[in-house]
Design brief:
Blueprint (H helix, E strand, L loop, with lengths): L1 H49 L2 H6 L2 H10 L4 H11 L8 H4 L2 H11 L8 H26 L15 H17 L4 H20 L5 H26 L21 E11 L3 E2 L5 E17 L4 E16 L3 E21 L4 E14 L2 E2 L4 E2 L2 E14 L5 E13 L8 E14 L1
Antiparallel strand pairs: 1-3, 1-11, 2-3, 3-4, 4-5, 5-6, 6-9, 7-8, 9-10, 10-11
Helix pairs in contact: 3-10, 6-8, 7-8, 7-10, 8-9, 8-10, 9-10
Length: 419
Amino acid sequence: MKMIVICIVGICSFSFLSAQNLADNVMAERRDSLRISTTTNFSRRLDKFSSSRFYQMMYIGIPLMVGGLIVKNEDDHFRGLRNDYLPRFNRHLDDYMQYAPAAVMLGMKAAGVQSRSSWGRMLVSDTFSALLMGGVVNTLKQTTNVERPDGSNKHSFPSGHTATAFMTATMFTKEYGHKSPWVGVGAYSVATATGLMRMANNKHWLSDVLTGAGIGILSTEVGYYFADLIFREKGINRFAGEDRFDRMDRPSFVSLYLGLNIPLSSYDIDEQMEFRTSSGSSAGVEGACFFNPYVGVGGRFTVSNTLIIVNEEQAENNTFDAISLCGGSYFSYPLSSRWLIGSKLLGGYVHYPQLELTDRSVSARNGFCMGSGVSLTFKAKEYYGIRFFLDYDLLPSHSRNSGEYMNMLTLGSSFMITF
């Protein structure tokens, strides 16, 4: 009798435990399903918002204009890079480069290459764009009275050449970007080169160029929007599959790197002198090749320039320069098919040229540096996008008499070609 009772109890216990395990498994599956569903819904909502007409009109132009206003107080640092490495640069190619994308666009149209718009619709779109761009640029030039870096006049802000170049690049990309990703890459590369040449020619500050680029892009987006309201479906060609986005694409990229340096520490040159830098600027290129959606290898080359303060009060005339080349691992996680978060872990080489202070010289030095960072990437088109980053670098001291390291943050954005 006892054996029967024990068996019945054992069977009941086993059945209860099995039922409990089954219920736990079902609940776990439901939680996993809910989590996946929540992630998928978030990704879909994020992509839906990113694909809206309003967002597509604003996502580059507005950040560029805001960025131009933010870096306005740091214009001297970026000009310092120009003065250190291109002090005698004087070329007039930018006077013609600003129109190059428009010239190619009109040439292709005249040759009969099919574009987004008919002749009438394209000319109306471009006229709206040019009137908006010209009106905004000239109004700001007359009202802000910002002196040019070379002191020639007070019509520096914003850069009209850069606004024109980015306006024509956006026109060209809208009309013929469906033909090849290299249409947009080439057009915006020419526009970017125009802006950089305006700074190299000492005609504009960085804030002028960034704001001008934003005005050029935004004016074209609004100009085409007005024309679309007028013409609706008349005189437009639709091209299927112009942009394809897959959440599991490998996020390999090459980008132009522009950042604002924020120093976090100082060090002693010797027993009598403490050395620290103020905020400064970095420019260069960065890229990475990914093996899968999550892990890749790459590198970064930058030239940095910052002002020097000695013993907490003495500002030096010369600037502190650093040239670095780093490589290592890059990591990415796709929030959606168009938005990604990333990080990296780098190590490499840094070179400090000889530094002349008021009462002494600090000899040139090479050293080992390490870096990391976080980023947020938006894939604007299938083959190019924009990336916002916050990088951290651990740098050796310039002085051989110091064993201390410098801690540096760099906040910035980069325009990237993806492949």
